[in-house]
Specification:
297 residues; alpha/beta; Rossmann fold; four-stranded parallel beta sheet; two-stranded parallel ribbon; 8 helices; 6 strands; 38% helix; globular
């Protein structure tokens, strides 16, 4: 058994206890399966977040929770984006609406609280406005728990970016492709990027041809260093005397009803990305869910 294992689901009890004693921090990776061009695995977002957090835990301590591949897509601005960048091909998408995704995240936080972690980093590799909602969500939940929380998209930690040029995020372009190439090279087939691509091409970014594995390695190192500093800040801020109010399932549901549900319609994921955007046409597969339904039921 590998004594350096940091993946929660692959660790034995004694390994978990040893890792917890050394660094009581837990890392939650989020993403989904969605189109990332013909050259990249569908799970790029979660693979990226998981890979970065594995390196963080191996180099700086902590335990990596099982990755969550079910994330926000198909509605509001995401539907418009998908119509424009994916089209009506089979998308192989693992999507949930915001109210289901964030309810799941709340239960993840409850688990961290019950296990008495001092710090939890929630890292999403999926973009669009869901990361803004994640940060707001964490602020709303923090008063209920002792564990110190921080939610972010991986690009927040990606500085100075691709080859130092300040490019910290894209969709299946040079940044994301290079990151996955560094973290999971078996999940990239760079030769599948056409020399003269016609867009849309399964949501491939227009800069994908500029991808560079070595640049990806440097970005990963930069993100790990940034996240290590954030982890230390959270651990230092932990206060064992804070009252814990997120321990039972009933308390999770109460937190949801009190803190999240009343403001959920204000979440950015529930809105168009632009007030001027047109809905997908009725014949588009993305028309089905672009309007937010009655999530209160």
């Amino acid at each position: 058994m590998d004594s350096s294992e940091v993946r929660w689901e692959r660790m034995l009890p004694h390994q978990l206890e040893t890792a917890f004693a050394a660094c009581p921090a837990v890392y939650f990776p989020y993403g989904l399966c969605e189109p990332h061009g013909p050259h990249a695995a569908l799970g790029l977002d979660a693979l990226k977040a998981h890979g970065i957090l594995l390196r963080l835990a191996r180099e700086h301590g902590g335990i990596v929770a099982p990755p969550d591949y079910w994330h926000i897509h198909e509605l509001a601005g995401y539907a418009v984006w998908a119509h424009e960048n994916v089209g009506d091909v089979r998308p192989w998408l693992s999507a949930l609406p915001p109210w289901q995704h964030f309810k799941n995240v709340l239960y993840h936080i409850r688990t961290a609280e019950m296990l008495e972690f001092h710090a939890a980093i929630l890292l999403t590799g999926h973009y669009g406005p869901n990361w803004e909602d994640l940060q707001h969500f964490v602020e709303l939940v923090q008063p209920y728990v002792r564990v110190r929380l921080y939610g972010l998209p991986d690009f927040e930690a990606n500085h100075p970016g691709f080859k130092g040029d300040g490019s910290t995020a894209d969709h299946a372009g040079k940044v994301e492709t290079s990151l996955l190439w560094a973290l999971e090279p078996d999940c990239i087939e760079i030769e599948r990027i056409p020399a003269n691509p016609e867009f849309p091409l399964f949501a491939m970014g227009r800069s994908a041809g500029e991808s560079d594995q070595a640049a990806g390695e440097q970005m990963v190192a930069d993100e790990v260093a940034w996240l290590a500093r954030k982890k230390d800040e959270l651990l230092a801020a932990f206060d064992p005397d804070v009252t814990s109010r997120l321990r039972s399932f009933d308390e999770v549901e109460q937190c949801w009803a009190e803190a999240i549900k009343p403001v959920l319609p204000e979440f950015q994921s529930m809105r168009p990305f632009s007030p001027d955007s047109e809905p997908p046409p009725p014949e588009s597969r993305w028309h089905l869910n672009w309007q937010v339904g009655d999530w209160r039921n």
